[in-house]
From TrEMBL:
It comes from Ktedonobacter racemifer DSM 44963. Signal peptide: none annotated. It holds the Pfam family HhH-GPD. This is HhH-GPD family protein. CDD domains: ENDO3c. Belongs to the Nth/MutY family.
Length: 242
């Protein structure tokens, strides 16, 4: 799958306009992919504040991820109840930890789960690392991409609801491209050094201006680049889907 020169130029103009409007965020990965994975599972269907609180309560209650894995599920659920859907998320977290433990045992590795996952992800090409994470139960394309981008500092852009809506509207992807498919398209098409900034700025834009309902097009810095607002021809700008 390639990208047409016109589409890349369109993407570059969007990237530059967003930096002009929102600035360039600092990319400071913490290199804690297991903490990031658990945090991302906790963030599903809740606010950042609630999931952050649940995460802190979880690591206050348990000293290691091995303890979380082996604890009675109702105790894990109790610790994360402030994040919502605790009875769904607790078994999901434990399931991911059990799966990772099986992979670790199969390799005869005896270090902590955190150290094991960090090395596993460091040693793999980007797309393989992304697919590796998705083999864990409850980990989809977006969660896997979040862990790689935010925790490992690897350039794969997570496509959440804001990015999916915005990249459609801008004409960067075709109208029938799903969020899951969009991950692969941007993985192959996006210059790696743009991934973090573009992700963060598109989320900012989706939250403040390009809302799902009634986007504020007249005040949008991307108006001249937007297929939805009629300023550009979508046929000339879409990234190819295959
Ligand atoms: S012009 Fe409107 S639809 Fe297009 S990106 Fe801006 S706010 Fe969204």
């Amino acid at each position: 799958m390639g990208i047409t020169p016109g589409a890349l130029e369109h993407l570059e103009r969007v990237y530059d306009l967003l930096i002009g409007y929102y600035g360039e965020p600092a990319w400071e990965p913490d290199h804690d992919p297991l903490g990031g994975l658990v945090g991302t599972i906790l963030s599903q269907h809740t606010s950042d504040i609630n999931s952050g609180r649940a995460y802190h309560q979880l690591i206050e209650r348990f000293s290691t991820w091995e303890e979380v894995r082996d604890a009675p599920t109702h105790e894990v659920a109790e610790a994360i109840k402030s994040g919502g859907l605790a009875n769904v998320k607790a078994p999901r977290i434990q399931s991911a930890l059990h799966t990772l433990s099986e992979w670790q045992r199969a390799k005869g590795d005896t270090r902590s789960l955190s150290a094991f996952l960090q090395d596993e992800l460091k040693g793999q090409p980007l797309e393989e690392a992304w697919r590796y994470l998705q083999q864990m139960p409850g980990v989809g394309p977006k969660t896997a991409a979040c862990v790689l981008l935010f925790n490992m500092g690897r350039p794969l852009m997570p496509i959440d609801t804001h990015l999916h809506r915005l990249t459609h509207r801008l004409g960067l992807i075709g109208p029938k491209v799903s969020a899951d498919q969009a991950h692969t398209i941007f993985l192959k098409a996006l210059p790696p050094e743009w991934a973090y900034t573009l992700h963060v700025n598109l989320i900012r834009h989706g939250r403040t201006i390009c809302h799902a309902q009634r986007p504020k097009c007249p005040q949008c810095p991307l108006l001249s680049e937007c297929a939805y607002a009629g300023s550009v021809n979508p046929q000339e700008t879409m990234l190819p889907t295959k």
